[in-house]
Amino acid sequence: MAAIYSLFIINKSGGLIFYKDYGSAGRMDTNDSLRLASLWHSMHAISQQLSPTTGCAGIELLQAHTFDLHCFQSLTGTKFFVVCEPGTLHMEALLKVIYELYTDYVLKNPFYEMEMPIRCELFDLNLSQEQKPNP
Amino acid sequence: MIGVGKMKQYTNVLDKPLSRGRQEVSLSAFAFLFSELVQYNQTQVDNIAELERRLEDAGYAVGARVLELLCHREKGNRRETRLLGILSFVHSTVWKVLFGKVADSLEKGTEHEDEYMISEKELLVNRFISVPKDMGAFNCGAFVAGIVKGVLDGAGFPAVVTAHFVPVDGQQRPRTTILIKFAEEVLRRESRLG
């Protein structure tokens, strides 16, 4: 079964607000993950400018030899992206589900400050329940 | 004939019959509103006890009004005079109207005569809220405790009502218990009534 390596959520200014790795393949230390997040944020923005067609919303899928990267950007500029094994299916649907969990358990939490790292117990709980069916 | 098929126009708004109101409200809308209520109160206070008190006061105002409304709508303007009566009113009718379901359980305290507990697996107001560790035992259910207090005070059963998290084995999320401690006079009156 294809597996997910890691999940990132970045705020509208490109700062990493949530990072979770699944297994050793996706693991990286804090500094690397922060660097990767801002790198992706810039690449996403540049791709919007580089596109030969108008109305481009940014990179949605990046395919490489050893991994796939699916990215979902909400209307507010928050980006959810997941690094997974090449050929993993239903990642867009998964990103939408994670977005829904974010709106429920992070945005409705009065103790969460906007654009700050996510430290919400309920979000983590529901996220791991979401992941259980994926081995 | 004149007036047939036309809605009766009320000149005075106080003469209009009380409507049933909309039965369902968006949960998300309420969650955001409640989140703002908590955040606003957080900016006004210095410590957690104050924040709990403020949420309780907010709930108290709701409770007083809910009592009047439900006595009129559900019970045909009858008044509860017995302890168990008012408790089951809170446990079933008030919960059903406010949260869409009756409370999970109503228990009498074993240690003290004047303590009763209404338990809920997860309060509706707490559904999306994760309290950070540094806030200790703070529970936004203080709002619901305030509602219960408002209902009981309005009905003539003064009590101290608080909300607590009770850890449950085998479950990650703790249960919530609303602890009701009645005043002396209520118990004396109750024993007099037999």
UniProtKB/TrEMBL annotation, chain A:
Pfam families in UniProt: Sybindin
SUPFAM superfamilies xref list: SNARE-like
InterPro entries: Longin-like_dom_sf, TRAPPC
Any single biological process term in GO: endoplasmic reticulum to Golgi vesicle-mediated transport
Domain of life: Eukaryota
Localization terms from the record: Endoplasmic reticulum; Golgi apparatus, cis-Golgi network; Golgi apparatus
Record's keyword terms, sorted: Endoplasmic reticulum, ER-Golgi transport, Golgi apparatus, Transport
Gene Ontology annotations for the cellular component aspect, listed alphabetically: endoplasmic reticulum; Golgi apparatus; TRAPP complex
Signal peptide positions on this chain: none
Record's subunit section: Part of the multisubunit transport protein particle (TRAPP) complex.
Similarity section: Belongs to the TRAPP small subunits family. TRAPPC4 subfamily.
Descriptive protein name: Trafficking protein particle complex subunit
Species, as recorded: Musa troglodytarum (fe'i banana)
Organism placement in taxonomy: Eukaryota, Viridiplantae, Streptophyta, Embryophyta, Tracheophyta
Automatic annotation (TrEMBL), chain B:
Residues spanning the signal sequence: none
InterPro entries: NO_sig/Golgi_transp_ligand-bd, TRAPP-I_su5, TRAPP_component
GO biological process: one example: endoplasmic reticulum to Golgi vesicle-mediated transport
One Pfam family from the record: TRAPP
Top-rank taxon, per record: Eukaryota
SUPFAM superfamilies (alphabetical): Ligand-binding domain in the NO signalling and Golgi transport
Keywords (A to Z) from UniProt: Endoplasmic reticulum, ER-Golgi transport, Golgi apparatus, Transport
GO cellular component: endoplasmic reticulum; TRAPPI protein complex; TRAPPII protein complex; TRAPPIII protein complex
Subcellular location: Endoplasmic reticulum; Golgi apparatus, cis-Golgi network
Similarity comment text for this entry: Belongs to the TRAPP small subunits family. BET3 subfamily.
Assembly description: Part of the multisubunit TRAPP (transport protein particle) complex.
Identification of the protein by name: Trafficking protein particle complex subunit
